Amino acid sequence: MKLSGGFSIGQFIPGESYIHSLDPRCKIIGAFILFAAPFIAKSPYDFIPIAFALAAITRLARIKLGTVLRSGRPVVFLVALTIVLNVFWTPGRELARLGPLSITEEGVTLAFCVGLRLYFLVMLAALLMMTTSPMAFAGGLESILSPLAALKFPVSEMAMMMTIALRFIPTFFEETDKILKAQISRGADFESGGIIKRARAFIPVLVPLFVLVFARAENLAIAMESRGYVPGVPRSRLNPLVWAARETTSILCVIVFIIFTVLWNRYAPELISLWLGLL
Amino acid sequence: MAIAAEDVFYSYNAGTPAEHAALEGVSFSVERGERVSIVGHTGSGKSTLAQHLNLLLFPRSGSVSIDGVSSKPGSPDARELRRKVGLVFQYPETQFFAETARDEIRFAPSNWGMRGDDLDACVDEAADAAGIEPSLLDSNPFSMSGGQRRRVAIASVIAMKPDYLVLDEPTAGLDAAGVRGLERILSDIRARGLAVVQVTHDLESALAHSDRILVLERGRAVASGTPEEIAVFLADNPVQGLLMPPTARFAMGLRSRGIDVSVTSGVPELVSALEKAERPDE
Ligand SMILES: Nc1ncnc2c1ncn2[C@@H]1O[C@H](COP(=O)(O)OP(=O)(O)OP(=O)(O)O)[C@@H](O)[C@H]1O
Ligand SMILES: [Mg+2]
Description:
- The complex is a heterodimer of chains A (279) and B (282).
- Chain A is mainly alpha-helical and 279 residues long.
- Helix content of chain A is 68%, strand content 3%.
- Chain A has helices at 18-21, 24-40, 47-60, 65-70, 76-89, 105-131, 134-145, 155-185, 195-201, 203-226, 245-278; strands at 94-98, 101-104.
- Chain A has a two-stranded antiparallel ribbon with strand order 1-2.
- In chain A, a hairpin with a 2-residue loop joins strand 1 and strand 2.
- Chain A is flat.
- Chain B folds into 2 domains: 2-244, 3-Layer(aba) Sandwich (Rossmann fold); 245-282, no CATH class.
- Chain B is 39% helix and 23% strand.
- A 6-stranded mixed sheet of chain B has the order 6-7-8-3-9-10, sandwiched between helices. Chain B has a 4-stranded antiparallel sheet with strand order 2-1-4-5, with helices on one face.
- Chain A binds chain B through residues 4-5, 11, 13, 64, 67, 178-179, 181-189, 203-208, 211-212, and chain B through 12-13, 16-18, 51, 54, 56, 79, 82-83, 86-87, 89, 92, 94-97, 107-109, 111-112, 142, 156-157, 160.
- The complex binds adenosine-5'-triphosphate (ATP) and magnesium ion.
- Magnesium ion is lined by residues 46-47, 90, 168 of chain B.
């Protein structure tokens, strides 16, 4: 029964690297542009430049490569499932047969690509979250979405809700962990018995958790109101977002990279096969 | 018969970037019937050690045994062993879930299969030991005062009839009267034969009420001994965050002038020791 610590795709790792100090808007936009790369990859070779880009960003962010590679762990099961499904259910040139199931060359390639695509997407998202504090992330998103306010979309309220939610997720897990431990030490047994008995065993955890969450929410609401928070009223920022030359440069690099991958995807597989054929 | 922790190392979030060493080679033991305090500054690892005594956490290296038996994570005997060691968490009233104090106190013993008259007797005995008036048993714990809730929380743990009672900062958030009331209850519980381990950063209360004291600093045990020994140690090696009570400092001052007083004496003893020193012939 350990909840805290084991959770989340990419928890923020405080740091002072180049990537950490970029404007969050730049990182969010850059990440979304980069998400395109795994999607346009059609052959396993197409992941080579993406892998290099990911390694370079990781290096710039001064994060251990292993940490980023491990961040894909929560989706390993999903990746395995898509691989299995694609391997067996893609028609094409047969490589092997397992009873009624046939493994095709197209299936293997597709499975490989789909699996890698998912894995790379998660790693990219994890890199974004590891280098951007939840507060900065919410602030950046608010700023990016602010044009929507003209359409009466409550951007700043949404951003405030998101900030609070992000702020409270770790607290929530810590408190759950504490309550679980306390009830276990009073003999609560969450592991034995049928489904009903097990569900009932969680009442002593859920009741205190709700009490606590509502008390916290109420305290927070009072504390915010007493300090003059009014939903929808424009607020100034403690750390105004600054979009400087290096943000523009970073985005340009990302765009150049995407153009490069498009060209790579078009020509590299043939060149590599040609080259492999020559050997 | 004792809980013995030997050379315990423990890290939170081991293997992640947030890894944090909370205990680094701590040894500690409590005999049955003893009253022991664990003192240390905020973040020194007191709560982490307390949770090892109850097998909620298991050391990364080192060992913890209860009455000579040790256990492994997830092993079924951990549950049986855990029964011997009641753990009262800091702010235990945040774990309440039942509608009456009686139901709350019933929770632990019924988890270990106690039913019927045995259970009722057990609840009454625990409530009595924790100083809860019988009339209070059927009221809602959420509507009680802080001191009353704390007692219900303690009763809800001693109801499982442990041999050892570990309390994490039991006086946190109580007023002076509440603290004194709790001290009486703990002495009473100890008199009933339980070993009492109290986690606190209040050195004064630890010096006054313990047989032995363990001092933690940044995850290491820096001293362990009788209140007398600990006071002498801390006078020479101050530990950040632990305040020597004025009476103890005064007693140490008297001793350095050759007046023989105990470091744990209260004001009346100090006064009479001073008087005796001024008129040695009487
Ligand atoms: N669940 C957790 N996850 C990560 N780190 C933790 C966790 N619990 C405690 N720690 C860290 O471990 C160290 C020891 O914590 P512990 O709670 O044992 O200290 P303590 O002596 O009880 O402090 P306090 O007097 O504040 O209660 C602290 O630095 C704390 O930040
Ligand atoms: Mg603590």
